[in-house]
Amino acid sequence: MAGFDSNQVASLLRQIGAYNELLANAYVYGSIASDDQDANTLSLLHKSGLIRPDDSPGEYRVTTDLKRMLNRLMRKQSSYRQLTDMGKVIDAIDEVVIDYQLAITSKEQEDAEYYLDQLDDLLYETKDSLNNNLDTMHFAIVSQFGFVSSLSNKIRQNERYLSHAQKLLNELQQIDPHDCYEWLDWLACPNEFARKITSFVYWYNQILPKLRLIIDNMRISLFRLRRDEKQASQLRNMARFLRKHPEFTLDENLFELPNLPETLKYAPHMPLKSYVDTKQTGIEQPLLELVQSLRKQSIVTPIKARETSEVSVKPIERIAAEEDFFEQQTELLFERVIINNSAISALSFYQELQNSWLEQSQTITPKAWIELVFSCYCKLTSAQQNALTIKMKGVAVIGTTDNYGYSDVVIELRGKLKASA
After folding, report:
1. The organism sits in which domain of life (predicted)?
2. Among residues 204, 237, 311, 398, which is most buried (max CB within 10 A)?
3. What radius of gyration do the chain's Cα atoms show?
4. What does the pLDDT look like over 144-178, one tens digit per residue?
5. Residue 53 carries which DSSP code?
6. Which range of residues forms the domain containing residue 414?
């Protein structure tokens, strides 16, 4: 085939033959794990396009193209579909998800592994197909002529790509990726299945901004190409006109004519260009004046001189954090429980320190104090809550079963900590 080197094909076939057992294990068992010994081998096969990374770090799977070939040669049932319609892809994924859920519910482990492998191939093929599609369109934009060699064909190619990209974006926007989370809404949902679905949703949310950016760049590129084509057409018409009217051509011996002014006979060579070099800052001002004069304006807008200004940054003001007085008292309550190794009632602690609090102009009602102690206990870390025990004192509310009105809380150390102390 034209465009391919036979040595490259032979090298790829030699790699398949040299690592046949490794590829066979990846195909039969679904994936292979890498270690220090075959890390270089797996990296080489990955660069050759024979294996691809799996969801789990350090694991690899056979690529879709190689697996499709092996499936056909082994006459194995394949689940590959044409990924031209995203709605059909979502329906196909939904069917595989239902089959996988029924297999898990029925505890049919082998069938569940088959459907999970089928889902992985379908999701990867979907992502790989769209990514290749976007990469192809991106190459057609950033390259000089894309896959063609003329300006008119480049314009037609960009128009087709732009139309295809807009249709693809409209199709993708009609699908809400958050609806895919409904596939996870069932009991005993395996983690590996949930990881594949969430990874697909994350990729779907990332592909839409990328496609919108490509469409914007294609529109700008198409506008520039049409402008260049118009300028090229004008130049061709001008060249055709000059060929038909030779009187407009300049004589090569013009400098020797006797009626030519003396100042022009010994003038230096004038560099002629078909465009204005806008990168030269020296011609910026005359160029702006020329452009404004060509515009049909009754009043010319004066050019504003560029102004410079300084940016002043104020230092960040540091404000000391103030801690609540009664929260400090709750910490003292917890510390006294730990130091004395005895149970302490929040209400008795309140009665004991009531006079000293009043001397500091700090007041709190008993009910609010008990609620604050309970709230501070709930804000402790898990290790601190495991070290302390809170007991509620109260009576049941009349007319209810499990509702109580609490009048006091008691904080004490747990039994194991008492014994160790």
Report:
1. Bacteria
2. 204
3. 39
4. 555 566 778 878 877 887 888 888 888 888 788 78
5. E
6. 325-420
